[in-house]
Structure prediction request, 672 residues.
Amino acid sequence: MVRIVAVSLSDIAERAGVSVKTVSGALHGGSARMSDDTRQKVKAIAEELGYVTNLAARGVRQGWLPLVGVVSDGLITSPFATEIVRGLDGAARSAGMAVFAVNHRSGQSIGSVLDEVQQFRPRAVAYAAMYHKDVALPDRLAGAVGVMINCREAAGRVTALVPDEEGGAREIVRYLLVAGRRRIAFINLPGILAGTLREMGFRAALEEAGIDHLGVFPAVRRSVYSDRAPSLVASHVEALLKSGQRPDAILCGNDRVAMEVYAALARAGLRIPDDIAVASFDNQVEIASRLDPPLTTMALPHRAMGRLAMEILLAEQPEPPHLRKLPFHLVERASV
Amino acid sequence: MVRIVAVSLSDIAERAGVSVKTVSGALHGGSARMSDDTRQKVKAIAEELGYVTNLAARGVRQGWLPLVGVVSDGLITSPFATEIVRGLDGAARSAGMAVFAVNHRSGQSIGSVLDEVQQFRPRAVAYAAMYHKDVALPDRLAGAVGVMINCREAAGRVTALVPDEEGGAREIVRYLLVAGRRRIAFINLPGILAGTLREMGFRAALEEAGIDHLGVFPAVRRSVYSDRAPSLVASHVEALLKSGQRPDAILCGNDRVAMEVYAALARAGLRIPDDIAVASFDNQVEIASRLDPPLTTMALPHRAMGRLAMEILLAEQPEPPHLRKLPFHLVERASV
DNA sequence: CTGAAAGCGCTTACAG
DNA sequence: CTGAAAGCGCTTACAG
Prediction:
């Protein structure tokens, strides 16, 4: 492609008959003292010449580029990841930073991606995971990562921002109880941290209310949850409906599981929420709001994690590493 | 966060007792001539010191950073956008470039985002749209954008890569015809370029086969398609089923529309594909593969657009601006 | 209020 | 085969 030779401060200086330092001050140094005349003249010439700041040059001087690197496992692919980036991006821009997202490709070590990012001399670096898990950072790089998003650094050396899975599960169960539901089953995502923690919350909330649950069932056969694994959802629902105690509410591991529960319930001729309530986790809007009836679901705090991450990264006073659990929020629709 | 002072080439040079130029040659100049001894020694010291190339410094020298800027309307949010980035990213990495994605926020002019990106002196810049449309680039910036992805530059000044909507519609209709379907209706996305072009393909394919269609209906009321607009899908399906000529196939504007068609058909007690076939556009995997039965749908060439875009951006010989339509591909599942 | 110069960390002619 | 120097476009003490 055609490359127009970029105009530099010295081009402007020459044209304005002033020094480069004066131009720099006029354009970027908000508080630099000079006559208003000079400043206006310089600005006008810069505009006329189509000057665009060269951040690389400033960067080599300052030692860093106004970038916040975000390295994530797998491509920033899910709607959730997008929310994280949205949160980061908003906060970054107000600080004059841009978000530079780099993904590690399968087979690539986390260390090599981190190195790749460091080459650009970002101001700070975050690590973000697609789903809530533990991540082991190589020793030499633990210090280079300022915050973990949606994951915990295995050795606890880095501040981590994660969803409060247990609290979220508690909240949705309480909501079902308030709605008068008493026979509740949970079709959970097996083999992942979120599933384990939510199950704890689920059990705790029911115990607290003195109510027995109808069981916790795995959505798929594989021990680690994966969309590719054969689904067990339909058979669980059928078994549940045939059992002595028919549930009056089914809590689902995510909205896709809920989608299958809806289908199984429709096949059985049951109406939601009249015959049976359905609730879930994720708030994957495209699914949840399109389901009939629209799905009541717990939204993950992805945007908040992103926003808070940027605050931590850009903070003047670094805090000691800690784990911060952010609350889900309930999105009420019509399935309960 | 703690910042370790970065090690520079001169640190290595000092330690190795050679000049900076030798270090630079040993580390980065693949073909630079020097004794193997020197090269090995320099590399070992670089490793030991944890040297990381300073791309900002190299960039100020070369005039550009090894970045390909991608500016898009709205956040890289949809699964489709992700595929574009995936395509770009793969091609970029093989060329030693990183993808730098910047979105324009609502209210921000396209010119100002482009300027923002230019500050980083990227090697090349692409513009990507969330959905197929025409985009007007400001005159002064048309030359700065090397390729349009999923959109056409309004004045045709920039090479544009778009899905072959008309061809895709033709192909899926032919597929329905081969499957023996003869009474086909189309619930289309109104008011967007993709919808208009697909409708042309739909009509052409049926005309070519000498078959009448059962009508083209808008999925939503609003003239511009939006997920927020009230859906008309269910009522179209009901009307279609009640009409004299019941359809044996419904083509849907996208997978979310298909999802609603499934629901309406289920309510009517009709089986897919035995009673009626359903096909669609998008291949939004989370929906299409989760539907029961899994949905046959035309996948958009997003990844291919991304890959090809990078080739165009990085090409030695720039081509004159042209419009390139990339083919959809059929994802056969079980709904036809 | 403004200028001349040094220096950030690289790469690239130019010498030897 | 290797070095010393210039220069990329900035910003920041240091002078005046």
In short: The first helix of chain A runs from residue 9 to 16. The longest strand of chain A covers residues 122-135.
